[in-house]
Specification:
homodimer, about 375 residues, alpha/beta, Peroxisomal Thiolase, Chain A, domain 1, 2 domains, two-stranded antiparallel sheet, globular
Chain lengths: ~375, ~375
């Protein structure tokens, strides 16, 4: 397999973009990534999108988006793995470049979520859970993650305040990100007093509904060295794993087994361990998710995830900064796009382009992206040469 | 890139399966393919599905289906490219094995279309066209293909009877296929007298709405030679291309440019031309589609597609048998599954397992699968060693 580099990244505007269509925001992000890469061609394309069908009544994004990007004729493919669609798109692009099938591969993610309103979005998102055995019985995602939170609190003594600290940290980071959907700070008291969604989770424990797109350009490492004037960011690890889709089928509600397995593969491939990761972007769709994820990644010990944000360990300036972009919580969570947006943050951090939220001496970043309650997960490790 | 072989194939029951769920029929097909391959493990999986969201309210099939197949923990990914989803899933599996990332890769396709009824299915299928510039203005797929048919008739003198001959031929083939949804023969008169759908297309020019699943197991050629007791079927060519999603953006309504480009790539890779293909499975979602496709593949001259079925050229026993399985027309068209079902037919023909519809001396088969009105296309060439 060939070595692969990320040579360009880009984001569209993020937020409630009622005047812009899915194809427009995708082209914004893709054009930005192509310009950043400085390439004059795209050989192949992958697009992560969770549900074009339910959110905007449009499938066949491979054709639509290659067409509107002006590259119709190339091989293009939409991939879906619920909220891990972006991570999976990145992995497919990585495999294609590594295989030698094509050289310059665009990987993008897009979701236009706000057109269907709150009920429509809740229905569409619930299709990431097991419809027949979970959703038809009344549970949606805040309820599922609430069960994980209650179990973590009861078993490991994680406190309600510790959950809040995850939101406080990520909003503090997001306030330094000009692209964030909610670039304001929140307080522990603010989180605790916000509207209850599914006990113990409150509205400020939840990531928002977001319209947005992100893109990255991949190519062989050798080509990147010739082509790029920027620091070379290399893909050194890729892991992908699945787990039972229904939460009730898991042996342990608080252990994200797919994340654990995907991380093991990525670490092994990169020949590093958790201690050698400079910073990470992880899937904080709910505050409890970040806590379970950093445990599964081995960034903290099992059961100790609750104290990480509270103690400053995962804050900018801490031992292992997590979600410097603001995470899904503050930056926003256009579901199929999130995994690629994490790669954008990793790449900019590794190149030293993150301004106020720059991680000093960032050498190696990890991105973890998951679907549903962890039924599918990708982990990627990027390193600056 | 490593050489890749198909070592197992399987189909579920096809038809209007109101008592069976998407997960069940997928597991049927995948289990059959795994048993046929004789493997004791699956390293990775791709599933083609056009719209789990709109047809059954279920996305995140990577997690759901790896879970219900009993292999949750492996990397699994759903791919979508409308009715070309199966072909794209096959290509992704091929690239993954060729890359060296994993060895034993299951590629499947599934669609459960009948649960939403006719209107629901028409809406879901229309999401393969450009919603904003085509569908919102009232056109659906029979209307789009009718425009292609009218143009082909007016430009090349193709007759209404010649369209009917495509249906007659494919139903004659399908009548020999125990798996076909509509295994009955039709006559030219029967087609011409059937209900008008979109002038000139009648109901017997259209492929049906089908529930069904198909699967294939891929592995490196070297491993297949050690493992398999059956004739070794090798993937010798893979092409994938896109075109404008909206029909009105094409320079020529009757030329399937994406099919032409995908075929050129596949022929080049296989180092063969159209004359060296023994038989083909092509995307006859409407009778006119088969006519345009065989022209784009170079199996017949441009403008001569209309006479091919009428003259017997593309019938079993003809120079280049097309759709020996019965095609989408008679075998059925579970949209995201079709591309994999074509691979099943190719593999069985190449192994000499096709019974009454066996192509004598079948050495090299071609599968062409397309989305929308040809906005995305895959072409694969398989060869028996």
């Amino acid at each position: 397999m060939r070595d692969v580099a990320v040579i360009g990244v880009g984001l569209s505007e993020w937020g409630e973009l009622w005047k812009r269509s899915l194809r427009e925001i995708f082209v914004d992000a893709a054009s930005a990534a192509i310009a950043d890469a400085g390439v004059d061609r795209i050989d192949s394309m992958y697009v992560g999108c969770m549900s074009g069908g339910l959110f905007v009544g449009q499938e066949h994004l491979a054709s639509l988006l290659s067409d509107y990007l002006g590259v119709a004729s190339i091989p293009a493919c939409r991939v879906e793995s619920a909220c891990a669609s972006g991570g999976v798109a990145f992995r497919q692009g990585y495999i294609e470049v590594a295989s030698g099938m094509n050289d310059v591969v665009l990987v993008g993610g897009v979701e236009k979520m706000t057109d269907v309103g709150g009920d429509g979005a809740t229905y569409a998102l619930a299709t990431a859970a097991d419809q027949e055995y979970e959703v038809y019985h009344g549970v949606t995602f805040p309820g599922l993650y609430a069960m994980m939170a209650n179990e973590h609190m009861s078993r490991f003594g994680t406190t309600r305040e510790q959950l809040a600290h995850v939101a406080v940290k990520n909003h503090r980071h997001g306030a330094m990100n000009p692209k964030a959907q909610y670039p304001f700070e929140v307080t522990v008291e603010g989180v605790l007093k916000s509207v209850l969604v599914a006990d113990p989770l409150r509205i400020l424990d939840c990531s928002p509904i977001t319209d947005g797109a992100a893109a990255a350009v991949l190519c062989p490492l050798d080509m990147a060295k010739k082509l790029s004037k920027k620091p070379i960011v290399r893909v050194v690890g890729s892991g992908h794993s699945t787990d039972s889709i229904a939460l009730h089928d898991r042996e342990d509600l608080t252990e994200l087994a797919a994340t654990k397995r995907a991380a093991e593969k990525a670490y092994k491939m990169a020949e590093v361990g958790p201690a050698e990761i400079s910073f990470a972007e992880v899937h904080d769709c709910f505050t409890i998710a970040e806590i379970c994820v950093i445990e599964a990644l081995g960034l903290v010990e099992r059961g100790k995830g609750g104290t990480a944000a509270e103690s400053g360990l995962t804050a900018l300036g801490g031992r292992i900064p997590v979600n410097t972009s603001g995470g899904l919580k503050s930056k926003g969570h256009p579901v199929g796009c999130t995994g690629i947006a994490q790669i954008v943050e990793l790449t900019e951090q590794l190149r030293g382009e993150s301004g106020k939220r720059q991680v000093k001496g960032a050498k190696r970043g990890l991105a973890q992206n998951m679907g549903g309650t962890g039924g599918s997960t990708t982990v990627h490790i990027l390193e600056v040469e």
